[in-house]
UniProtKB/TrEMBL annotation:
Record-linked InterPro entries: PAP2/HPO, PAP2/HPO_sf
Family annotation (Gene3D superfamilies): Phosphatidic acid phosphatase type 2/haloperoxidase
Protein name: Phosphatase PAP2 family protein
Record's keyword annotation contains ATP-binding: no
Length: 190
């Protein structure tokens, strides 16, 4: 409901603070970081996930392939947040730009990648789960900040994007039985 109306006061304040930064050095740096973390990393992760899935199928590891397929499904549903959300909310951006503002596709992409990475760690490398949460949490904040510096999103666009990915990702992961993780990895009751 917040993003369906005019920009909130906090949106206006943040947009004013970054006014014109996109034309200077911070904007050029932000563009590179935004493209790298918001487009390249998610694209490479999606390709790697699909390749791993087919490799596990080819080698006959059906359980692993099943887990990878379900993680890929969750990743895809997270990415749909942006595709379906923009025409649904029809929110204008802080500056002239060809697409609608909410949700931020770049933020959705890196947050969705983080969701997939955390699920992969939960199932295949539990000791790396905290590292994945921290790494992709920082990457998501960085992408959100770059989108604000570039003046192409409101603060609530970026926050809403993260919340949407978390909500859809956790719900989907639960439905496809990826949560709370493999039984053999859960702590045994005392």
């Amino acid at each position: 409901m917040t993003v369906a109306s005019h920009p909130a006061a906090v949106d206006m304040a943040v947009a004013s603070a970054f006014q014109g930064w996109w034309r200077a050095t911070p904007g050029r740096i932000s563009q590179v970081l935004s493209d790298l973390l918001g487009i390249v990393v998610p694209s490479v992760a999606a390709i790697a996930l699909v390749l791993a899935l087919f490799l596990r199928l080819y080698r006959g590891y059906r359980r692993d392939a099943s887990v990878l397929a379900r993680i890929a499904l969750v990743f895809g549903l997270c990415r749909l947040t942006s595709v379906l959300g923009k025409p649904l909310f029809v929110r204008a951006r802080p500056r002239s730009y060809p697409e609608f503002a909410y949700p931020s596709g770049h933020v959705v992409a890196i947050a969705g990648t983080g969701m997939a990475a955390v699920l992969l760690c939960v199932w295949f490398a539990p000791r790396l789960t905290r590292w994945a949460v921290l790494t992709f949490g920082v990457a998501t904040v960085m992408v959100a900040l770059t989108r604000l510096v570039l003046g192409v999103h409101w603060l609530t666009d970026t926050i809403g994007s993260v919340l949407a990915v978390l909500g859809i990702g956790l719900a989907a992961a639960s439905v496809v039985r990826l949560l709370p993780g493999p039984v053999h990895e859960r702590a045994l009751p005392a």
